[in-house]
Amino acid sequence: MKVENINPAVPSSDVEKQKAELKKACQQFEAVFLSYLLKEMRKTVPKGGLFGESFSFDVFQSLYDEALSEELSKNKGIGIAEELYRQLSRYV
């Protein structure tokens, strides 16, 4: 049984495009959240160690955390993006 879009004024391709944009926005939100979470978690780790403290290491670690959070959010992450999409896709 095929179910058509309820609103005939909105083509189904536009709805699919909006859902794809919503999914991307949800993943970006989760990436920002994870990036912030990683940043706050790193504050609890004592400074020092092999690399010491330097501006370049701080920049590298920040970029690494950002890239890691983006990859995590694309690959199911911690489930925030999926749940947001499930809740918000009803309104598209």
Question: What are the SSEs and their pairings?
Answer:
Blueprint: H1 12-42, H2 55-74, H3 80-88
Helix pairs in contact: 1-2, 1-3
* Quaternary structure type: single chain
> Biggest sheet: strands, sense, closure?
none
Total strands: the figure is: 0
Supply Rg.
Answer: 19 Å
| General form | elongated
User: Structural class from helices and strands?
Assistant: mainly alpha
Mean pLDDT: 83
Give the % helix: 55-70%
Number of helices: 3
Tell me the span between the first and last alpha carbons: 21 Å
The helix/strand order is HHH
Unreliable spans? none
Tally of separate domains: 1
How much beta, percentage-wise?
Answer: under 5%
Which features characterize this protein?
92 residues, single chain
Describe this protein's structure:
This protein is mostly helical and 92 residues long. The chain has one domain (12-91). The protein contains three helices and no strands. Helix 1 (12-42) packs antiparallel against helix 2 (55-74) and helix 1 packs antiparallel against helix 3 (80-88). The chain is elongated and about 55 Å long. The two termini are 21 Å apart.
